[in-house]
Design brief:
This protein is mostly helical. The protein has one domain. The protein is built from nine helices and no strands. The two termini are 23 Å apart.
Length: 209
């Protein structure tokens, strides 16, 4: 897989991990209200959920590609459409606020389990992985499953690093990420990223026709 593709994917995942959402703000609030390790345990649970989503995406995309290259192309086109939709929804997103009364003090095991279920019960994560990962697949390179596993692993590592950093720096990042202005800017950046990925995919597919 080309290095520029990997670097692009890493940068995209980094910016998306920073974009305010229920997961990273829950990590932030657990850490700010209790202790940094609370947020780290939630993060570990979220990443475990991402691992399961990655395995499901690998199986699904591999089966589609083996069935028909045309079906794989259609999957990428539908993924591009979904990313454009996600871009619009992200751009319209309002600031997210978490209040202390909504955040309970839990044990490490409970926090880890909560992170897993927060991730697994969010159907948008599965759809997002099916929409995003195939856009970076090189059909002429090594196996689809290996490329998906690599990209999924990168997504998990980036999420782990960014979310853990938020947990550790919770006292400094609490009001920064809770700021409506900052959330708006990060949502705008995320929306632009989705549009660029979708356009890049559409252009590459049209050039192959």
């Amino acid at each position: 897989m080309p290095l520029d593709t990997l670097f692009s994917f890493i940068l995209i995942m980094f910016l998306l991990a920073l974009s305010p959402g229920p997961d990273n703000l829950y990590v932030l609030m657990q850490s700010a209200l209790y202790q940094p390790m609370s947020g780290v345990w939630v993060t570990l649970g979220l990443c475990t959920g991402l691992l399961i989503h990655t395995m499901a995406a690998i199986f699904g995309v591999t089966v589609i590609f083996q069935t028909s290259e045309m079906a794989f192309t259609l999957l990428k086109l539908m993924g591009a459409g979904y990313l454009l939709y996600l871009s619009w929804k992200t751009y319209q997103s309002s600031a997210i606020h978490l209040r202390k009364k909504s955040v309970a003090s839990l044990s490490a095991g409970n926090l880890y389990q909560r992170g897993i279920w927060m991730n697994l019960t969010n159907p948008k994560v599965s759809i997002f992985f099916l929409a995003l990962l195939p856009q970076f697949i090189e059909t002429g390179a090594f196996s689809i499953a290996q490329q998906m596993a690599l990209l999924g692993g990168i997504a998990i590592v980036v999420t782990l690093v960014v979310f853990s950093s938020i947990a550790i720096l919770a006292g400094y990042t609490k009001y920064w990420l809770q700021s409506e202005t900052m959330q708006r800017r990060l949502h705008q950046v995320a929306a632009l990223i989705f549009v660029l990925i979708a356009l890049k995919l559409i252009i590459s597919l049209l050039s192959d026709i």
